[in-house]
Structure prediction request, 528 residues.
Amino acid sequence: MSLQMVSTVSNSSLLQPGFSLLNFDGHVFFFGQKGWPKRSCPTGVFLLDIKQNELKMKPAFFSKDSCYLPPLRYPALCTLRSDPRTDEYQYIIHGGKTPNNDLSDKIYFMSLVSKTSKKMTFQCIEKDLGGDVPEARYGHTINVVHSRGKSMSVLFGGRSYTPLAQRTTEKWNSVVDCLPSVFLIDFEFGCCTSYILPELQDGLSFHVSIARGDTIYILGGHSLQNNTRSPNLYKLKIDLPLGSPAVTCTILPGGISVSSAIVTQISDNEFVLVGGYHSDNQKRLACNTIVLEDSKIEIVESVSPEWTPDIKHCRIWFGCDMGKGSVLLGIPGANKQLIPDANYFYILRCKGAEEDKEEELITQICSQTSSEDPGDSTPFEDSEEFCFSAEANSFDAGDADTYNEDDEEDESETGYWITCCASCNIDINTWVPFYSTELNKPAMILCSSGAGHWVHAQCMDLSETMLLHLSEANVKYFCNKHIDLNKGLQTPQKVVCLKKSPMKPLRKKKTMKLSASTKKSFLRRLFE
Prediction:
């Protein structure tokens, strides 16, 4: 075994405990980032580019007919070959945690649909299941077994949230062990069947499972109910006759009490077990070799690598299998790095040096042959293109399409993840789509006050009908803060006054003054 430190990781804050690695044709892809995907890589799947002890990420692409695959941490995944005689396979992904800490009960099939010297394109399909569908969970395993010419997937273990009927205010988001049921999933007919076996009494999570033929071996795991790590080694045998399947379980001696361990395959029937925990405060630094032959399993302790002092003294560590006998390990680096979420990473190669060189030479020859034919290569926009050359770690450090968080606009201060008002509760780590038009970013609308500023439609309590109307109509919008100010500053409408002709003033009547003699003569005549 050899341990090599990755000196530089361009965006290590995305790689947190719970991530997964997918190996397609010798190229390793990262899945399960921390937080929701950003604009630079909306798919949330990255190619790991490792060269000269530097790790960089390049965005991956999906076909137009793919469904949306959210970033899931601690999912169960395995490979499924449609034809055992070919090297083509796809990944099955079930469950896991979303960035909002919601648990997924969906199952996805991810496959490579096209590959050129410039671009690899994936397809993701969500599968619908019927029958005894497994509940949403994380920290479980899924494997594929073959028996009598048939294939089925076997799902076991994991944790889930306490059922709603049993939740209390103090323990609203507490997790519990899933029931120790074994699920057989037939993807051809889309049906699930659960089995309760007497040998499996306690729920397990973060265990190890290895499948060979019609048998699955389950090793270690943690039980929340008892707060123990199981020392048992379980052997599940699945028989698939023409009728109903038969599932049996046997407890074998020679198990290992460990949780969160990592298994990598170094040959057809040989595996290496590395990492994990003996207890909550004690890491497991020993390594084991697991050999499967026919219906037997043999677990022996192997020589461990020279662990660095940082690995020996750190409290936690995490990682994932990279395929072909390599493991990516991470340890916290908050005490020594400026970025709080940054981590240190190491690559553990479990194969011998001669085997590594031979495999590297074969990979170079095969890759060079495929890269010499540019006929299938098509031009892409600069923002889309990323190059594949001789091998997975042979990218130029100066590629313009390499994903780098430092180059991306900080969306916590600008863009979609701003604090638009005093009551804004939109957070990049907890946001979920509210409107039907939203996918991976919140809907926003421009307030026309002053120079203009953007606000979240959800924070403004806009209905979806009103939001669509405002986006289609050519009208100005004012946010809740500026709507009253806008009304006060509005110029009153000009009122057209009717012209009225001025009225002529009344003329005063002239009065005559009469003398006393004249009055008497007038009155005398009036009464005669």
Q: What stands out?
A: The first strand starts at residue 2 and ends at 6. The domain at 7-266 is CATH 2.120.10.80 (Neuraminidase).
